[in-house]
Each structure stands twice: as structure tokens, then as C-alpha cells.
Write a structure and sequence with these properties.
Elements: E1 12-14, H1 23-30, E2 38-44, H2 45-50, H3 53-57, E3 66-71, H4 75-88, E4 92-97, H5 102-106, H6 117-130, E5 134-143, H7 149-163, E6 167-175, H8 182-185, H9 193-202, E7 207-211, H10 217-224, E8 229-232, H11 234-238, H12 246-251, H13 260-276, H14 282-285, H15 298-306, H16 308-311, H17 316-327
Parallel strand pairs: 1-8, 2-3, 3-4, 4-5, 5-6, 6-7, 7-8
Helix pairs in contact: 4-6, 6-7, 15-17
């Protein structure tokens, strides 16, 4: 980690989620927690080296601590991207060795790389040699029929020894490379949290984070008794208010957003700056639909802020209107 700025630990983080954890969601999440680690969507190396860097790498400084997740398998390209991540101000660069989609496999990266620990080590070592920020890896516990704990142990042991990586983020499911969609890969392979706990016992010197199927603060407390950190995915997106308790629970702070309405008003300067720059309001509102999940009137909140007709050429007053509805919510349930 860059020593210039002291960052919180990775005790709680929000998982990289393709099409979801873009800079608009991350900016919103930061109004709910100041200390949670945020991750970008996975970005492949080609998009950074040959595409629109501003589109893929741009972020607001308040998003830190922030990690860039990379997809790729060429050590030289990954090294270049790791250096770019450092230059842009990211706190961490993470290699994706967990995505099971066929599109990713065709590019020879993602979960299929678990079958090539030497290549993974070469990639991570090149990244570490190229930059001064933390280099981490996110992976599954196994691939297809390789379900024994020993496969996971040997993968982590080799990568740590050969590349010097100390932080492993483990999705506690196997990746099924053929026959299951990415969505099914998030639900169907059984969760084996005990594998991740055992990994921490076998490598006590490493930072081990657990991911997969974690939805409540009770779940998080259970896992933190065994590992160093917890990474939450879709629950943090669909029920973002859970983030309001993160700083106090996991970082010992006393800051907490006052209310859901206060979160949206704090976000207003960012939203209006984006609108002025030509960003459609829907780019922001699609990420805040779950803010009132479980609250009376939540259905109206979602309906107002997802209505294509209302969103066309809309600006901040539409959000104000949705907030006003929540002050006198409809009688229908959440």
C-alpha cells in the first residue's frame, strides 16, 4: 500500500461486480461508508492499454480506498496496467482469477487460470515489480471436479511463495467452467466456508478475505472470527443501507449517515456536476433503487427513479420528488 496515505484495513469490502460497481455506484456507496474498501468492475488489460482510459479508470477521489480489478494473463500487459493503476491513484490492483464466464475463458483469464498457478505467479510478480501499491488476487476454491481442499492450499501456497502476494480474496465456491452460466456459478456450487477458514489456519501470515453468499452482519461476524476480512457482493448493491453500519461495526468509528434522505442530499453536488457534464440521470438512479429496501414506500421510490419516461431529460428535481414521496409514503408495502 502507498505509505503516503494511511488506509483502513480490508476488514469489509464490496465485491467487484460487472455492470454494477461502476463509478456512480461507488460514489453513492461512499456516502454510506467512509471506510469500506471499494472495487471496480473487472477491466481487461486490452481495454486499458488500447481503449478509453478515462472511461475505464476515472473515479472521484472520495472513493478511496479503492482497488482496480484487472482481467488478463499476459505478465507484461498486467505490469503496465498495474503501474497505470498506481499513477491514477488507486490503492490496490487486484487480479481476477475467479470469473467463470466463457467469454473470459476465451481470453485465457478468470477462473481457468487456477489451473496454471505458475502463470498466475508470473503475472502477479510482474505486477508487484511494476508498482508500489498492494497487489492482490481474487479466486475460487476450485475448478470443475477439482474440489479437494488440497488444490486450494497448493494454489495459494505456490502463488504466495513465487510471487510474494500476501492478500487472497477467496470466493468460497468452485467455478464450473462448462455447463453453468456466471449467474448459476454464484448460486449452484455449494459454499464451503470451512475451506477458507482452514486456509487461514494453514497460512496465518497471509491476509485472507472471504466472499460468497454473505448477506447479513451476523454472517460477517461469524466469518470474522476465522478470517481477516469479508467481501460482500450483491447484498451491498440491492440493500445498500446495510453499509450504514460498516464503519462503526468493523472500523471502530462513530460516523454514520443520519438517514437515507441525508445520503441522497450529500450526493447532490456529485449528481448535479454529472448532469452538467452531460451524464443522464439514469446512470446514477439505477444504483440507488435499493436504498429504501424494506421500508414502506420503497416500491414508489423504485418506480419513480426507474421510469424511462420520467428519466428522459430529468434532473435533480426528480430525485427530490421521489424523496418527497418517502415523507408521505404510499400505503402499498415495500
Amino acid at each position: 500500500m502507498n505509505d503516503a496515505v494511511k488506509r483502513p484495513s480490508r476488514r469489509f469490502s464490496i465485491a467487484p461486480m460487472l455492470d454494477w460497481t461502476d463509478r456512480f455506484y461507488r460514489r453513492f456507496a461512499r456516502e454510506l461508508s467512509r471506510d469500506a474498501w471499494l472495487y471496480t468492475e473487472m477491466v481487461n488489460t486490452g481495454a486499458i492499454l488500447h481503449g478509453d482510459k478515462m472511461r475505464h479508470l476515472r473515479f472521484d477521489d472520495v472513493e478511496n480506498p479503492l482497488a482496480l480489478q484487472l482481467g488478463g494473463s499476459d505478465p507484461a500487459d498486467l505490469a503496465k496496467c498495474a503501474k497505470i493503476a498506481e499513477d491514477w491513484g488507486y490503492d490496490e490492483v487486484n487480479l481476477n482469477v475467479g470469473c467463470p464466464s466463457e467469454r473470459v475463458q476465451s481470453g485465457s483469464f478468470g477462473a481457468c487460470l487456477m489451473l496454471e498457478p505458475r502463470l498466475v505467479s508470473d503475472c502477479l510478480k510482474a505486477m508487484r515489480d511494476a508498482c508500489g501499491i498492494d497487489v492482490t488476487v481474487k479466486h475460487r476454491i476450485g475448478i470443475d471436479a477439482l474440489e479437494d481442499y488440497e488444490f486450494l492450499r497448493d494454489f495459494v501456497g505456490h502463488v504466495h511463495a513465487a510471487a510474494g502476494v500476501n492478500t487472497f480474496i477467496v470466493h468460497a465456491r468452485n467455478a464450473i467452467l462448462k455447463g453453468l452460466s456466471p449467474k448459476e456459478n454464484r448460486d449452484i456450487p455449494p459454499l464451503k466456508y470451512d475451506y477458507v477458514y482452514r486456509l487461514k489456519r494453514d497460512f496465518p501470515q497471509l491476509e485472507i478475505l472471504i466472499n460468497g453468499g454473505i448477506t447479513t452482519h451476523d454472517d460477517i461476524a461469524t466469518h470474522l472470527a476465522h478470517v481477516d476480512g469479508v467481501m460482500v457482493g450483491r447484498e451491498a448493491y440491492h440493500n445498500p443501507w446495510m453499509l450504514a453500519d460498516v464503519d462503526a461495526r468493523y472500523y471502530g468509528g462513530d460516523w454514520r449517515p443520519q438517514s437515507r434522505e441525508a445520503v441522497m442530499h450529500a450526493l447532490r453536488p456529485f449528481v448535479e456536476a454529472e448532469l452538467k457534464a452531460g451524464t443522464p440521470l439514469r446512470f446514477v438512479t439505477r444504483h440507488v433503487l435499493g436504498l429504501y429496501q424494506g421500508e414502506r414506500g420503497a416500491r414508489g421510490w423504485r418506480r419513480t427513479l426507474s421510469d424511462a419516461k420520467l428519466l428522459k431529460d430529468a434532473s435533480w428535481p426528480l430525485i427530490e420528488a421521489a424523496l418527497a414521496q418517502m415523507q408521505t409514503p404510499e400505503s402499498s408495502p415495500a
